[in-house]
Amino acid sequence: MEILRRRIPTGFRDNRGFTLVEMAAVTAITGLLATVALPVVARGLAWWQVQTVAWQLVNEIRTLQQVAMSGEDRHRMILLDADHGLYRLKENTTIIKEVTLPPGVTMELNLQYTGSGGGLVYGNELSFTLEGEPVNSGKIILRDRYGRPYYIVIMPFTGRVRAGSTP
Predict the structure, then answer these.
(1) Closest Cα partner for 145 from 76, 42, 34, 72?
(2) Cα separations (Å) of 78 from 30, 35, 136?
(3) DSSP track, 5-62
(4) How many whole angstroms separate alpha carbon 77 and alpha carbon 94?
(5) pLDDT in tens, 114-131
């Protein structure tokens, strides 16, 4: 037994664990750090959520444009419903797909086309011609729960679709 005592340094022989004060201090520091970090993480997650929805919609728009240009189906369109927070893919009179925006994400529409009288008409439908030209062009603005906008812009004549945090 005396051999074991000689090998173990003196400071380690009497150490039996943490005290209640040490545990309370660590818990308080961890709680303080969590209080500071959680809002930052929540803002980041909300922004990531808006970007994910935006890129999903951009892919749907680009697919719609490609299908129209291939001549497969000229009667497809995307119906955007900002009031109910969703959009639908429509083929002729049939709804193919319906996508609901996640809670906290809102949509604003600024799509326009030239009406039969030559004036601008605002709408909520998006479709393309055989040449890939959008029937409606303009902006779709998605906002996260903190009000930060993410823009999807459909360019007139060219049909270029771009997305980003600037218009």
Answers:
(1) 42
(2) 48, 42, 11
(3) HHHS-HHHHT-----HHHHHHHHHHHHHHHHHHHHHHHHHHHHHHHHHHHHHHHHHHH
(4) 11
(5) 655 556 667 888 989 888
